[in-house]
Amino acid sequence: MQNVQLFWNLYKTELETTVEKHCKNCGHTALFTDTHIRRHNANGKNIYRFAIYKCAKGHTWNKKLHIYKTHSEHVETVDTFQEERQETLNNISITPYQNGGTTELTILLESVHGVFRIDKVLATYISEWSRTVITEKIKDGAIQLNGQQIKPNAKLAAGDCISIYM
Ligand SMILES: [Zn+2]
Predict the structure, then answer these.
(1) What are the protein's UniProt keywords (predicted)?
(2) Which of 13, 51, 62, 96 has a 20 to 30 Å separation from 84 between CA atoms?
């Protein structure tokens, strides 16, 4: 019995959008939905901002949005960047926890900016699990919110605690 605790901050900045494009993993054209998750990658003096899109099977596609310069002296820009950098910390891989003997993974939501469904958030942040897998686990009670069984479309709020039982 090993319990691991994580802290997440959720942000939503833009309206939901879908893009129809070829999915390499599906091998055909698929409808990609904006997960509202943004990722920053630093490359030399540039910071690339990506929107993470997913097809129905859960394959990801990073759409490039903006390029920032890291030497900006505008304080507000720096603050925004630091705050948004936390988004990338949410991304987790479940396999190392399973292999390491973790039986329960607890995710505490420190802040929630916007409206988020538990199934969408977990499908976005957990790399191995598709939305279908997440939905099944929620229905089986293997994923709970505040110690209770919930529906896949349950909304998340700051202070909520997500429990994942392996
Ligand atoms: Zn796909």
Answers:
(1) RNA-binding
(2) 96
Locate all alpha helices (DSSP H) within 23-165, ordered by sequence.
Answer: 75-89, 95-99, 118-125, 131-140
Residues 6+ apart with CB under 8 A from 74: none
Ligand 1 geometric centre to CA of 32 (Å)? 8
Give residue 57 CA to ligand 1 midpoint distance, Å.
5
| Confidence band, pLDDT 50/70/90 cuts, at residue 75 | very low
Domain that holds residue 26: 3-165
Residue 84: is its pLDDT beyond 60? no
Query: Is pLDDT at 62 greater than 80 in this prediction?
Result: yes
pLDDT value of position 141: 97
Which carries the bigger pLDDT value, residue 25 or residue 41? 25
Our count of domains for the chain comes to: 1
CA 21 to ligand 1 center in whole angstroms: 10
User: Exposed, middle or buried: residue 71 (CB in 10 Å: 0-12, 13-18, 19+)?
Assistant: exposed
Dihedral, CA atoms, 111, 61, 120, 146, nearest 10 degrees?
Answer: -50
